[in-house]
Amino acid sequence: MFEMPWRDTEGLGAFRANAEGAVVAANTQLINWLERPQDIAHASINELILGLDNERWHIYMAQLLASHGVAPFPAHLRITDDKLLPVEVHLTALPRPNAETEILGLLIPIGDRLQTEGVYELQKAVLEAVALGRPLKVVLDLLCRRVEALAPEVICSVVAVDKDGCLRPMAGPSLPAAYAAIVDGLKIGPKVGSCGTAAWRGEPVEVVDIASAPLWEDAASGVLPFGLAACWSTPFRGRDNGVVGSFALYYRTPRKASPFHRHMVEACVHLCSLAFEHEANQAEIRRLAFFDSLTGLPNRALLRDRVEQALGRMERNHNSLAMLFLDIDRFKTVNDSLGHAAGDRVLCNVAKRLLDAVRETDTVSRIGGDEFVVVLPDCDANAAQLVAEKLNQILAQHMELGDLNFAPSASIGISLYPNDATDFDTLLKNADIAMYQAKRDGRNCTRFFLKAMNEEADSRLELEAALHQALSQNQLQLYYQPKVWLDQPGIAGVEALIRWPHPQRGMVSPEQFIPLAEECGLINAIDAWVLKTACSQLAAWRAKGLAVPSMAVNLSATRFTQDDIPGHVRQILAHNNLNPADLTLEITERLVLEDSRETQSDLTRLRKLGVQLAIDDFGTGYSSLSYLTRFPVHELKLDRSFVQDIETNRDSRALALAVMGIGHSLALAVVAEGVETAGQHAILLAEGCNIAQGYFYARPMPAEAFETWLEETSKLKTCS
Ligand code: C2E
Ligand code: MG
Ligand code: MG
Question: Are 14 and 102 in contact (CB under 8 A)?
Fold first, then answer.
């Protein structure tokens, strides 16, 4: 006879069944859950509970009758055919005097709304903490606390596995600190408690009773006194699929985890993985943000941090600090001529040498291209000077770069705390200024920062900004100066010379601003503008019928390594409908002598194009003339300094004559620069110089003035 209902147990479903698995009674809660309660009368247990089929029922029956008990297990209560309620099933035998034993089944809903919501809230809170960038330990601590709030019967902990395979407790707010201390540093292995073994195996390890578990044999005495009796640990993996940690639930009594615990652990392990991965990503970002990827040295950001900390110490101890700014000499040439791989090798080599040369308390950092900064705490001017000398000595050792034996050197600028500055930015700026002075003083030397350098640097900066503006606002102008024939009427050509009318400073000389433009990188834009303007001016004169045979344009040496000059020249000539022979490029001896492959090939390409090449300021730079025979040059421009004394100084005169002789013997045109007097003109003419340029004939002048000059001189010439 089916009895129903009997007294309710709050929120729990309950039934009684006979040994065959037929339900003989159910409580109100169970009946209420069901959509068709009438079906329960004499229902079979396997219809009622999905996951408890006949075979399992009989196994359980046998266990229960033998008084072994059955551990609770998860299953689903069939509410309708397609509606299931997740429950935890507890089965107990009900011995009845003189009657067949019955089974009491308790159904605890594990999909319980509160618990499900609790796990959902937990996930949300932890993910939010991860997203907000909270430290890993804080995130894991939050996770554990939330788990323990949902399941007060557990003690939750997270351990990390470090790169040496040792356990590192990360969180365990309810775990005794003394126990965490025991775990800390344990090497994972096949028999190292639940966590150490789980991490070793890479799979969950559930120990129901620590006291009797072989896995805990060696560690049980450490854990039992803390009242921990069971432990279920689930490892989780990182990006490369290696185990990075383990999530554990401890119990105070020997037991298995409940279905709800399992549900929670599934969620938690996933969260741990995410939090660890986020931490690894953050660490990678920090590494990228604070270290130079080529040399591994601290970058500017980390340098700032280190210096700021050191400055605090210096202030407290009344000590000084030195900042050395090193720029590798001629690094650009190495990079341009031997390629970036060679350049990188030089930088790594320099980094290593610097690191080896200084103390551990010093900082070596790379803050850009070939710029290194060495910071020496507790160091005064004398000591800084010694260190700088030592660094340059160490750098000077040869290193092999392909076939080349290269000895790096550096220009070093030094600034001192507190004398030169008391903050990082100013110290760095002053050391940089001093480094520039070292470069200007011939490189491979050391200069201390001086206050006067600062003023100069400021005015240079100001000039640089103004030049930028002048270029962008089209305020630069070209003046033109003729090169005249000495032994026949007319002009041989004209040289374009740049002018900068500055609103306050008046006309700024190219001798002042061209080197500045070269240093700050504006030269490319300036020279490109000059080439374009001069060529279109020549085309305009030609269109007007003015007889201007050729246009000479000065070309800065620094531009060669950076731009495709032959390509640019070809394009401009074509645009203005000019022949390559109409254009002369004036270059310096320094450029011709540079043994960079790119420069050499550019010069050859220009020559092949048919553009004329002139060596400007000839005789001032190098004594080696052998390059003239190798080089595709058309014209030598004898420097003004030779012409200046030609009337009064016999040596000057002899030198000028010798240079002219060399030029003529190589069938080059020789142009005398800076002719100012009739006497100079007469001597040059007598000595067979046939082209000259100078104030004696005409000063550089704007295009319109030049047109007038040209018309007038040709009239004069025709009259005479
Ligand atoms: P440079 O190419 O040797 O130009 C000749 C310089 O001598 C010009 O100075 C010219 O004005 C000056 N000069 C000409 N005749 C006489 C004379 O009889 N007596 C004296 N004392 N000087 C004379 P400027 O225009 O001041 O140019 C100076 C240098 O600046 C040029 O020397 C050239 O190296 C550079 N420069 C000028 N324009 C440009 C340009 O457009 N691009 C580049 N990269 N450099 C330029
Ligand atoms: Mg020139
Ligand atoms: Mg010159």
Answer: no
Alpha helices in 318-404 (DSSP H): 331-338, 340-357, 381-395
* Cα 329 to middle of ligand 1, angstroms: 28
565 with 555: CB under 8 angstroms?
A: yes
Q: What is the pLDDT of residues 262-321, one digit of tens each?
A: 989 999 999 999 999 999 888 888 888 899 989 999 999 999 999 999 999 999 999 999
Which pLDDT tens digit goes with each residue over 573-612? 999 999 999 999 999 877 776 666 777 788 888 989 999 9
Cβ atoms of residues 376 and 322 within 8 Å: yes
Q: Which of 192, 195, 190 is nearest to 175 (CA)?
A: 195
Q: What's the gap in Å between 582 CA and the centre of ligand 1? A: 20
Coil vs helix vs strand at 235: strand
Tokens of 320: 């000084």
Q: Which amino acid is at 11?
A: G
Chain centre to alpha carbon of residue 376? 25
Residues 6+ apart with CB under 8 A from 245: 158, 159, 160, 161, 170, 199, 235, 236, 272, 276
CA 467 to centroid of ligand 1, rounded, Å: 18
CA of 715 to the centre of ligand 1 (A): 28
Q: Which of 481, 494, 497, 638 to probe ligand 1 with, by most ligand atoms within 8 A of CB? A: 497
**How far is it, in rounded angstroms, from Cα 685 to Cα 675?**
11
Mean pLDDT along residues 359-366: 95
- Quick one: which atom of ligand 1 is closest to the CA of 481? 14
Q: Measuring CA to CA, how many Å separate 529 from each of 146, 209, 523?
A: 69, 86, 10
Q: Are 449 and 456 in contact (CB under 8 A)?
A: no
CA-closest candidate to residue 365, choices 380, 375, 376 = 375
Starting at the edge strand found earlier in the chain, the sheet holding 154-161 runs 167-171, 154-161, 243-251, 230-237, 205-207
Query: Hey, which of 55-69, 338-352, 528-542 has the most confident mean pLDDT?
Result: 528-542
pLDDT confidence band for 153 (50 / 70 / 90): confident
Q: In whole angstroms, give the CA distance from residue 215 to residue 370.
A: 58
DSSP 688: T
In 151-252, which ranges are E strands? Answer: 154-161, 167-171, 205-207, 230-237, 243-251
What is the predicted pLDDT for the residue at 461? 83
Ligand 1: which of 479, 554, 677 to mutate, judged by most atoms within 8 Å of the beta carbon? Answer: 554
Between strands 13-17 and 167-171, the pairing is unpaired
* For the CA of 696, the nearest atom of ligand 1: 18
Residue 210 · residue 223 · CB < 8 Å: yes
Q: Which residues lie closer than 8 Å to 534 by C-beta, 6 or more apart?
A: 478, 496, 551, 553
pLDDT of 384: 96
Q: Is the peptide bond before 580 cis (omega within 30 degrees of 0)?
A: no
Which ligand 1 atom lies nearest to the CA of residue 510?
30
**Which pTM value belongs to this model?**
0.53
**Pocket residues: Cβ below 6 A from ligand 1:** 481, 497-498, 509-511, 514, 527, 530, 554-556, 586, 616-617, 640, 673-676, 693-695, 700
276: enclosing H helix or E strand: helix 259-290
Q: CA 477 to CA 502: how far, in whole Å?
A: 11
**How is 466-483 classified by DSSP, letter by letter?**
HHHHHHHTT--EEEEEEE
Backbone angles phi, psi at 23, to 5 degrees: -75, 130
Closest CA to 380 of 432, 326, 314, 429: 314
Q: Residues 197-220: pLDDT tens digits?
A: 999 999 999 999 999 999 999 888
**Locus of tokens 């940089």:** 432
For position 624, what pLDDT does the model report? 57
Q: Which stretches within 486-544 are classed as H helix?
A: 510-520, 523-544
Pairing outcome for strands 635-638 and 612-618:
parallel
